[in-house]
Structure to design on (367 residues):
């Protein structure tokens, strides 16, 4: 499995770390335009001082960069720079850069090592870990990709200070997800310290990030290729979320915002199908009520969408099997499972309707 390192500054002594892990000091460094501006000069200078040979690549900071056309352009730049199998790729950014960089590393020369340096809360706690890398297709998100574990995941919570509040809440959705699916005690910690974490206060921030990263690593180690159903529990709320993201054209709604909505739907579905007790449902909803959305986003991207339309778009989710939707539900807080049986459309629609009622207090949930 990957080696996960959490610290500040996490790139100190990177040269020795590469040598310890049998990695060459020839590195393609992939940024997006934002991470290049924020961290590029200092990071490249640090690496150069540590004796690295570098090739810098930059992509636009948007979901559309996870595409064949972007990958094809980057392949060309690497070929022209004589990058071969002896090189590594360091992905510096959020989920887009991490996914794109991992996809390129998995396919270039039939696979070169990838090192993830996540710069968003969502990437630190979730997307940079576990080795699922992909690009998008107009008909669906993350449909084309590989399993390609990073050699290293380098997490520096101080990078989060540059993020807008919207990105913090988006990332927090995945952090909370780990409490729901695997650790009730962690869920209680997040409920108690939600304000401190979203305000990036220490030591709560680093504890939340570290715990999330290692919960995901543990789940991935048990079921790397998602064959037993264990890894699928990481998709709690995501079947609903991916339908919302498709409706938002993968750009008007953050992934974490969609997951927050999706987890509310999944909580109601878990309860309505007889798995989750009412008291646990209410406790979970109480935590999710603390999330905030930019003004108007919740209304346009969920409340104004007909439940039937959302259900139709959920069928583009790659997690469906034999044209049936697959749902991750909760038996109790901290214990998730993949439901093998088919769920009637009416039950799904009811859960969406109840989630809409839950979120209808826009003055409470918007900022």
């Amino acid at each position: 499995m990957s080696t996960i390192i959490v610290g500040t500054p996490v790139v100190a002594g990177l040269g020795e770390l590469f040598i310890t892990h049998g990695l060459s000091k020839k590195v393609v460094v992939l940024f997006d335009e934002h991470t290049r501006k924020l961290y590029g000069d200092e990071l490249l200078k640090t690496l150069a001082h540590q004796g690295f040979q570098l090739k810098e690549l930059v992509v636009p900071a948007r979901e559309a960069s996870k595409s064949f056309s972007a990958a094809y352009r980057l392949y060309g730049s690497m070929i022209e720079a004589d990058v071969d199998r002896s090189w590594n790729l360091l992905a510096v950014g959020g989920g887009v850069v991490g996914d794109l960089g991992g996809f390129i590393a998995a396919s270039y020369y039939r696979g070169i090592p990838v090192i993830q340096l996540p710069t968003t809360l969502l990437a630190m706690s979730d997307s940079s870990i576990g080795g699922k890398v992909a690009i998008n297709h107009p008909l669906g998100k993350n449909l084309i990709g590989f399993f390609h574990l990073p050699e290293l995941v380098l997490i520096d919570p101080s990078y989060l200070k540059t993020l807008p509040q919207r990105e913090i809440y988006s990332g927090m959705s995945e952090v909370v997800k780990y409490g729901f699916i695997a650790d009730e005690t962690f869920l209680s910690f997040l409920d108690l310290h939600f304000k401190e974490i979203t305000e990036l206060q220490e030591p709560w921030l680093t504890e939340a990030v570290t715990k999330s990263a290692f919960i995901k690593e543990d789940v991935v180690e048990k079921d790397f290729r998602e064959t037993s159903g264990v890894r699928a529990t990481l998709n709690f709320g995501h079947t609903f979320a991916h339908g919302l993201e498709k409706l938002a054209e993968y750009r008007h709604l953050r992934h974490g915002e969609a997951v927050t909505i999706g987890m509310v739907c999944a909580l109601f579905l878990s309860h309505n199908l007889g798995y989750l007790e009412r008291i646990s449902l209410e406790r979970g909803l109480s935590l999710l009520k603390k999330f905030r959305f930019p003004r108007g986003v919740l209304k346009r991207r969920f409340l104004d969408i007909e439940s039937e339309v959302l259900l139709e778009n959920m069928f583009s989710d790659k997690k469906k099997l034999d044209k049936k939707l697959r749902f991750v539900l909760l038996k109790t807080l901290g214990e998730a499972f993949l439901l093998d049986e088919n769920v009637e459309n009416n039950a799904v629609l009811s859960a969406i309707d109840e989630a809409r009622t839950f979120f209808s207090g826009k003055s409470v949930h918007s900022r």
User: Anything to note?
Assistant: DSSP finds 16 helices and ten strands in the chain. Residues 3-161 form a domain with the Rossmann fold fold (CATH 3.40.50.1970). Strands lie at 3-6, 26-32, 53-59, 88-93, 114-118, 132-137, 140-147, 152-155, 327-332, 335-339. The chain has a mean pLDDT of 94.
